[in-house]
Amino acid sequence: MSETSTPQEATGSQLNRSCESCRSLKVRCLPNPSTPHQCQRCAKGKRSCIFVAPQRRRPRKRTDSRVAQLEKEMRVMRSLLKNRIPEEDEESEESDDDHEDLKSSGRDHSANSDDARYMDYSPELLTHGVSVPDFAFPAGLEEERQPVEDVIDRGILSIDDAEQLVAYYIHELAPLFPLVLLPHTTTAVSLRATKPVLFLSVIAATAISVDAGLAAVLNREIVRLYSERFFIEGEKSLELVQALLLMIVFYFPPASPLKLQFYQYTHIASTMALEIGLANKRRVKSDRRTAHDETLAEQARAVIGCYHLGSTVAMKTRRPNLLQFNDWMVECVRHLERSPHRTDQHLAIWFELQRITDEAMSSFGLDDTSTTSPLTESRVQAVLRWFDKRMEAWKTNTPSEMLTVPLILEYRSTALAMYELGVGEGYRDPDAVKKRYFTLPTPEGPEAQSPLSAIRIDINMKWMNAAHEMLDAVLACSTDTMRKLPNLMYTRLAMGVTSLLKIHFSVRTGALGEVVTPETVNVHFYLDAVANKLAEASGAGKYKIPSRWYQVIGVRGRDWYERLESRGEQTPVESMAASGSQGPSQSQSHNQVQSQNHGQSQGQDAMNVQSMNTFPVSVPMVDPRDGYVAMSGTGMWPPMDVQGHSHNPHFFMGYQQSPHAASSQQMPPQFAYEPQRMPAPAAGMELDGWLPDGSIFGMPPLPEF
């Protein structure tokens, strides 16, 4: 058929109804009546009018056939690569499975970014991280990603000493703060091979309770390794979260106050837990074949630990907590309550205290640090009444065998913190720790204060009683227990001492002195007792944590107290207290009774403090995975006595080192580091050893002169 053929001339095929010229111009093609083989537009333009047959459309392949063809081509390419690259021992056998994993990983990354927070993390993925599989890297890069030499390879620590440190952590330190638990069969060799970051974190945390020189070296190593893994490599895993939790609980105090990183470490762990999905309900199916899912329990401990530490640091520093409480945490707590391990049940009970604290903080309005609404005395009184009922219910419902040393210290410090907030009327400004109840007036003269109401006097008395009970609990601990307690527990001790110092100042210079005497506060006895306890636990500087807190409490706290007492001038308030509404005979009789009770209280306290260090071993040490080392329940809660706050001699009867740990009493091993000796601090009460603003973490700063 010629190019100028028309529809009339096409006998064997059907042509297009428009010529090629009109089709290209996308206009209507009208036939020309005078010229049958041309249209009107082509005749007018004197162009040849060409009609062609329509093109056949090729049928589109179905999706499944296209995918099958693509997979066929991929198999051909892989077969060609196998002939050119030497086969690896294990990678060549699992190449098909790796290919399927790579395809699924590619589909996950191409999905919407909003679905990233709901990513399913298997136990293996959570343990080893979320990095790209090894086969995705070239052979040259694989060699670069091999782990560098650790402290064992470089000769900093021998493998035998590492075995002792890991065993010491499992049997002695882990029950104190059971956020990261290891099976009792765990060895240093296996932990080093499977979880190198957690291994270094465990031995660094244990070294703090063993030797200050070794602890300084290992803690520097763990910070360097963690920084490389997290900040440089960008890894995120459950192992890194657990390692950071140990770094927070067993925190190694830095030399400079500008390097404190409690808040930063806590929220790095919290944000990492959010990113890897620990704080969200997991979408992988639990193992129904066993009654207890150990993988879920491990994740539950981590997320509960992140929330507890975040809430604690946020309350003390008056800063927000990035990890909020949700329904998934409730399920985690329930899972730990049903756990066959006593340590998990103990952690669930511990978490109830944190929830009581958070609800009380919300009632005070401290859950939002940006608001500054004032609190009335009636509101504070109502919140504290509710708080007292919740704490009493918690104490009643908690089995006596679960009342361990850290749990009792947490209970006492929780009550102390709440009453302190009640006295301070719930300040929420971060700089409020330097105002009013947190700072002393200038030496020129005390500020005028309005008379205290009955409600405020009652709150102050409860605050003082809580401080006494907190310090009594610490003084009842043996020297060996004091050396094991992490730095986080010592912040509770410092908070109790500081509270007594502030109450003592209010009694000496404020309106509180009209109803409370300095002998009732008894700050002199507690300063001496706590200083002696810390000096004994420090071991002449061998143990880092007690040594550091001895400088804060035993040296600087004593210096502030002596400065206050050296004023030597009786204030008008004290004169009113001495010759007030009561007659001379009544006043003399009252003072004699107080002096007699005070002497009995001091003698009883001193007797108890001396007797706490030598207890018979009544409860044998068992494996922390199958049972928990607990205190005896008899005489656990002393009566609320204002004059004397002495504990029953069986207060910590069961919390002793067991025959199993008798072999580790020779700890520390003979390391190649001399114990650090703490230099004597300069005179003065400038607490420049902790926070840039002059405050100590976990408590308000001491008043200044």
From TrEMBL:
<keyword id="KW-0805">Transcription regulation</keyword>
<feature type="domain" description="Zn(2)-C6 fungal-type">
    <location>
        <begin position="18"/>
        <end position="51"/>
    </location>
</feature>
<keyword id="KW-0804">Transcription</keyword>
<keyword id="KW-0539">Nucleus</keyword>
<feature type="region of interest" description="Disordered">
    <location>
        <begin position="78"/>
        <end position="116"/>
    </location>
</feature>
<feature type="compositionally biased region" description="Acidic residues">
    <location>
        <begin position="87"/>
        <end position="99"/>
    </location>
</feature>
<dbReference type="GO" id="GO:0005634">
    <property type="term" value="C:nucleus"/>
</dbReference>
<dbReference type="InterPro" id="IPR051089">
    <property type="entry name" value="prtT"/>
</dbReference>
<keyword id="KW-0479">Metal-binding</keyword>
<dbReference type="GO" id="GO:0000981">
    <property type="term" value="F:DNA-binding transcription factor activity, RNA polymerase II-specific"/>
</dbReference>
<dbReference type="InterPro" id="IPR001138">
    <property type="entry name" value="Zn2Cys6_DnaBD"/>
</dbReference>
<feature type="region of interest" description="Disordered">
    <location>
        <begin position="566"/>
        <end position="605"/>
    </location>
</feature>
<dbReference type="GO" id="GO:0008270">
    <property type="term" value="F:zinc ion binding"/>
</dbReference>
<keyword id="KW-0238">DNA-binding</keyword>
<dbReference type="GO" id="GO:0006351">
    <property type="term" value="P:DNA-templated transcription"/>
</dbReference>
<dbReference type="InterPro" id="IPR007219">
    <property type="entry name" value="XnlR_reg_dom"/>
</dbReference>
<dbReference type="Pfam" id="PF04082">
    <property type="entry name" value="Fungal_trans"/>
</dbReference>
<protein>
    <recommendedName>
        <fullName>Zn(2)-C6 fungal-type domain-containing protein</fullName>
    </recommendedName>
</protein>
<feature type="compositionally biased region" description="Low complexity">
    <location>
        <begin position="579"/>
        <end position="604"/>
    </location>
</feature>
<dbReference type="GO" id="GO:0000976">
    <property type="term" value="F:transcription cis-regulatory region binding"/>
</dbReference>
<dbReference type="InterPro" id="IPR036864">
    <property type="entry name" value="Zn2-C6_fun-type_DNA-bd_sf"/>
</dbReference>
<feature type="compositionally biased region" description="Basic and acidic residues">
    <location>
        <begin position="100"/>
        <end position="116"/>
    </location>
</feature>
